[in-house]
Amino acid sequence: MKARQVIEVQRARASQDGAGVAIQRIAGMRHSGMDPVLMIDELRSEQRDDFAAGFPPHPHRGMQTLTYMKHGGIIHEDNQGNRGEIRGGGAQWMSAGRGIIHSEMPTQDSQGLHGFQLWFNLPAAEKMLAPRYRDIPAADLAVHDSKGRRAVAIAGDWALDDATISGPLVELVPQADMLDLTLAAGDRLMVDSGADQTLIAYVYDGSLADPRGSIAARHLAITGEGDAWELRAGEAGVGLLLLRGTPLREPVANYGPFVMNTPAEIEQALRDYQSGNFGT
C-alpha cells in the first residue's frame, strides 16, 4: 500500500453567483489534480439577504451539477419539465448533457443555509446526450454514526474501518464518489482509492492535521499518487467533503455555464442557446 500525501492546498475565494448569492469558490477547470471535479462552491449564511435572490434561469451544457444541502433547501425547475424541492438537507443532481435551462432557489431552515454546489465534467462521448435530473431527500442518503464519527454517503462505496456505506447517487458513478465526513478531535481514518484516482477533500469545519501544517476550513486538500490516505482531524475535529474520481484527462474548454472540449464546441453552444434551440 502506498500512502497518499497532500501535495497542494487551495483556499476558497469569496465570490458571488446567480443573482448575487454569496459563495466561497474553489475553481479547477483545468487542474489535473481535481479532474473530473471542475468547481466547488460553498453556500453558508444565516442572513437571508446573502442568498434570497437565488439562481434565476440560466443554461448549462456538457457537465454535471450536484447540489448538496446540510441545512436549508433548494427548489429546482428546468425547461425539460422537471421540478424538485429538497428541505432540511438532501441532494439534487443534474446532467446538463446537450443542454438545459434551469433555476435554483435556496430556502433556509432554523439553522440557516449551508450547502454546496459542485460541477463535475462529463466525458466527451456523453456531453451531447439528453439531460437528466434527480432529487435525493436527506432521508434517502446513507448515514453511518460510530465512535464520534458521522459519515453521509452521497455517491460511491466507502469503507469506514468498521462499516461500508454506499451512496444512492449511482448516476454520478463512475465519474466520481462523494462523502460528507465528520471526525472528532484527533480521530484518524484511512480512506482507500484506486492508485490512478483523484482524491481530494474540501474542509468546511474545523481542520485537518497534516505534516505540512493544519488545513483549515474553506480550503481544499489535493493528494498525490497512492492508494490510501490517512485523514487526521485537528484539535477541534473536522468536517469535510471527500471526493474521489477517475480523471478524464480530456481537453477542457469552458465559457460561463458551458463546459466542452474545444472552442468550436463552445461557440456552437452559444449559437444554439441564442437561437432558442437549446436543450432540444
Question: Quick recap of the structure?
Answer:
With 280 residues, the protein is mainly beta.
Query: Which sheet architecture does the biggest sheet show?
Result: 9 strands, antiparallel
CATH architecture verdict: Sandwich
Bin the strand percentage: over 45%
CATH superfamily grouping? Jelly Rolls
CATH topology: Jelly Rolls
Measured between the Cα atoms of the first and last residue, the distance is 48 Å
The total count of strands amounts to 24
What would you report as the Rg, rounded to the nearest angstrom? 18 Å
Helices, by number, come to 1
Please describe the structure with a list of short key phrases separated by commas or semicolons.
Jelly Rolls; 1 helix; globular; single chain; 280 residues; 4% helix; 24 strands; nine-stranded antiparallel beta sheet; mainly beta
Task: Explain how this protein is built.
The chain has 280 residues and is mainly β. The protein has one domain (6-274): Jelly Rolls (Sandwich). It is built from 1 helix and 24 strands. It has one helix at residues 263-274, and strands at 6-11, 13-17, 21-27, 37-45, 55-60, 63-71, 73-78, 83-86, 90-95, 100-107, 113-121, 132-137, 142-146, 149-155, 157-159, 164-166, 176-183, 188-192, 198-208, 215-216, 219-223, 228-245, 253-255, 258-260. The longest helix has 12 residues, at 263-274. It is globular and about 55 Å long. It starts with 5 loop residues before the first strand and ends in a 6-residue tail after the last helix. The mean pLDDT is 92.
Which helices and strands, and how do they pair?
Blueprint: E1 6-11, E2 13-17, E3 21-27, E4 37-45, E5 55-60, E6 63-71, E7 73-78, E8 83-86, E9 90-95, E10 100-107, E11 113-121, E12 132-137, E13 142-146, E14 149-155, E15 157-159, E16 164-166, E17 176-183, E18 188-192, E19 198-208, E20 215-216, E21 219-223, E22 228-245, E23 253-255, E24 258-260, H1 263-274
